[in-house]
Design brief:
It contains eleven helices and ten strands. It folds into two domains: about 240 residues, 3-Layer(aba) Sandwich (Rossmann fold), CATH 3.40.50.720; about 50 residues. It has an eight-stranded mixed sheet, with helices on both faces. A two-stranded antiparallel ribbon has the order 9-10. The N and C termini lie far apart (about 55 Å). The chain is α/β, with parallel strands linked by helices and about 300 residues long. Strand 2, helix 2 and strand 3 form a beta-alpha-beta unit. Helices cover about 45% and strands about 15% of the residues. The model has no long low-confidence stretch (mean pLDDT about 95). The chain is globular and about 70 Å long.
Length: about 300
């Protein structure tokens, strides 16, 4: 069955190029009214221009779609509130938010200026929080909403020279997990896309073959599923080069250490068993982990 977004209103941040542009174009092609947000800065976040957002809006309109441009800075809450207000004034509701805006200031941690650390976290993590905060009450009031965070394998697995970016992207997974619980009863589903794609931030780091394989358009199908009416919640999908996979945080079964044996030496001796992943456990919530280990202790102690 075809997946339609007719009548839905979507905001996509960082939509002047790359992933955001691909998401915005496809949402519009499938019937959504789209707010194309882009501050228009360089890869490191400097500068600013509405040209990129305007160009994508013109593409959408030329294809018969409905869109408006927004040049707000995601790091400024007032800009995001103004963007949400414009969307409501133009379209009457906000159904979808794709948090995609980002910058890079790569450097090894030893050489990194902490201003660059803060700037990257400011755009990726605080920017996503600002945009989400700006639409959250509207979605709660509607009883419907879809919010998508854009995370990264750098956040889940690490990547040399990207301590700032990795910290921000890992933080977005935590934000997704908690907002899932807070939005659930209001019909708000919160998910994350973990893309591998060539964008204006990464395109000059790849050869022609990689650029073709990692076109942003290969990520968009998974992103749109995660903001559709059929979307799950608290789900992170990896997407790129034609592969889509689910990413999960799991625990090992672990080892119970009796009282009197809870020493660093005991942990070292049992480490292989502690780390064994032959029966991974997905934990439903932070408190579920607490319940599990307390129940285990009580069972052992009788």
């Amino acid at each position: 069955m075809s997946m339609s977004f007719d009548g839905r209103v979507a905001i996509v941040t960082g939509a002047g190029g790359g992933l955001g542009r691909a998401h915005a174009l496809e949402l519009a092609r499938r019937g959504a009214m789209v707010v194309v947000n882009d501050f228009g800065g360089a890869r490191d976040g400097t500068g600013g221009s509405s040209a990129a957002a305007n160009a994508v809006v013109e593409e959408i309109r030329a294809a018969g779609g409905t869109a408006l441009a927004d040049g707000g800075n995601v790091t400024v809450l007032a800009d995001m509130e103004a963007m949400a207000a414009r969307a409501l004034e133009a379209f009457g509701r906000i159904d979808i938010l794709i948090n995609n805006a980002g910058i890079l200031r790569d450097r090894t941690f030893a050489k990194m200026d902490m201003a660059d650390f803060q700037a990257v976290i400011g755009v990726h993590l605080f920017g996503s929080a600002n945009a989400t905060k700006a639409v959250w009450e509207t979605m709660r009031r509607q009883g419907y909403g879809r919010v998508l965070m854009t995370s990264s394998t750098s956040g889940s697995y690490g990547n040399f020279g990207q301590a700032n970016y990795a910290a921000a992207k890992a933080g977005l997974l935590g934000l997704m997990n908690t907002l899932h619980f807070e939005g659930e009863k209001y019909g708000i589903h919160v998910n994350a896309i973990v893309p591998t794609a060539a964008t204006r931030m990464t395109g000059d780091m790849m050869d022609a073959e990689m650029l073709a394989l990692l076109a942003p358009e290969h990520v968009t199908p998974a992103a749109l599923y995660l903001v559709s009416e059929a979307a799950p919640s608290r789900t992170a999908l990896l997407a790129g080069a034609g592969t889509v996979a689910r990413m999960a945080i799991v625990e090992t079964e672990g080892v119970y250490l009796p009282e009197g044996e809870r020493t660093p030496e005991a942990v070292a001796a049992a480490f292989d068993a502690i780390a064994r992943l032959d029966a991974p456990i997905e934990t439903a919530a932070g408190l579920a982990h607490v319940d599990r280990i307390v129940a285990r202790a009580k069972a052992v102690q009788g």
